[in-house]
């Protein structure tokens, strides 16, 4: 993790409004709600601002940098205050082009905008950026509305990663549209992955592997979280023409085989070695419609019990989802869970800071969202009380192991009738999106609960490779008798674990 992320830890922990230890809190009477565990603090944005927050970064001077789709960057002072009304917004930079990535590195703020990665700084320390440099502009732009560009923080090797939307949904009319570029500390780019359609965010897991969200459309039956395995093909062949570029040929070799429209994801993954299937499929209109920002919890428990899990926004639903990932046969796959709803605008940028704050930026311009505000900036904090949730869902050769955040009531958790399970997948096709197809209903034959009550081993007849396994545990109760805060989980079973597991 870059060193600057640790700068504000002590200050932020002291300021965090959720600093009361968990053992000093009691759960509110009545059915639990998301507010009992994760509280939303909403910033009051001045009426003169269009704060369509597309990127968020921590600055070394204790402020929060917020980049907007309008091309401005604001410094937010007192962002960690217990009272968000005390925050102050100061313009740091303007005149940029749709800021969808911010990263502080080696004395500069690196800005991913639609046309390039720039780096800027305030050399005279008057609170306003006065030096602007182009860091990398190796991709093209032609004015098409769809040509967004999202940038990551710097990784441990000094690289930042940029994912580039296609022109429209189908084509790559500008250089490297539909590709991921890795940009080193000298500003030189290396074409790293092809096959991208419409990213909504990019970030790392706890071991610095890079993930991005792609959205429903051609060759994407539903929204998903994808692993940017270097040299991989991510599924959309619209940018294959850039394999003719010498830099792409040098780093990735020849173009992959064309996928077959109307096929299935894992059928094509078996046929095309370069194809990296989505790690997690987000079932459409169940988990959202427009997957966005990516943030991993590396706060050592300050954000609650979901350490090293990935959180993903959804712009249309104005939510944040939670993702558990594991590696099976060398590939990432896993489950997604509902986590928090009720954000004021369409969730776009998600940023976890060392103190355990999740900052969420929102916008609904051009896309629409459940959140009714045109834009929003909010801070989500853990109250110190642990919700009763499914914590992890791991694939086994004959079923799944589900862990919980609290001990379960054994009689409910061991009863197969406490769960329902169905599976489905999506058509892998060149036309826009896909309905759920190939439904099956596996049988949960038995459930064994661990002695400590913290996990349940579900043995299942009828697992389906390449399918989402939608598990509902509505009748499971905690040892105290509470239902799960969120009873549904969705596991994308691309690869079957070996029998030794």
Structural commentary:
By secondary structure, the protein is mainly beta. The chain folds into two domains: 3-7 and 38-382, TolB, C-terminal domain (Neuraminidase); 390-493, Immunoglobulin-like, CATH 2.60.40.1220. It has four helices and 33 strands. The chain has helices spanning 9-15, 246-252, 265-271, 410-413; strands at 38-42, 53-58, 64-68, 73-77, 88-93, 102-105, 108-113, 116-121, 131-136, 149-154, 160-164, 179-183, 189-194, 199-204, 210-214, 223-227, 263-264, 280-282, 291-296, 310-314, 319-328, 331-340, 347-352, 357-363, 375-382, 390-396, 399-404, 420-428, 436-440, 443-449, 455-461, 467-472, 488-493. Strands 17, 19, 20, 21, 22, 28, 29, 32 and 33 form a nine-stranded antiparallel beta sheet that branches. Strands 1-25-24-23 form a four-stranded antiparallel beta sheet, with no helix packed on it. A hairpin with an 8-residue loop joins strand 15 and strand 16.
Brief summary:
The chain is mostly beta strands and 501 residues long.
Topology:
Blueprint: H1 9-15, E1 38-42, E2 53-58, E3 64-68, E4 73-77, E5 88-93, E6 102-105, E7 108-113, E8 116-121, E9 131-136, E10 149-154, E11 160-164, E12 179-183, E13 189-194, E14 199-204, E15 210-214, E16 223-227, H2 246-252, E17 263-264, H3 265-271, E18 280-282, E19 291-296, E20 310-314, E21 319-328, E22 331-340, E23 347-352, E24 357-363, E25 375-382, E26 390-396, E27 399-404, H4 410-413, E28 420-428, E29 436-440, E30 443-449, E31 455-461, E32 467-472, E33 488-493
Antiparallel strand pairs: 1-25, 2-3, 3-4, 4-5, 6-7, 7-8, 8-9, 10-11, 11-12, 12-13, 14-15, 15-16, 16-18, 17-28, 19-20, 20-21, 21-22, 22-33, 23-24, 24-25, 26-27, 27-31, 28-29, 28-32, 30-31, 32-33
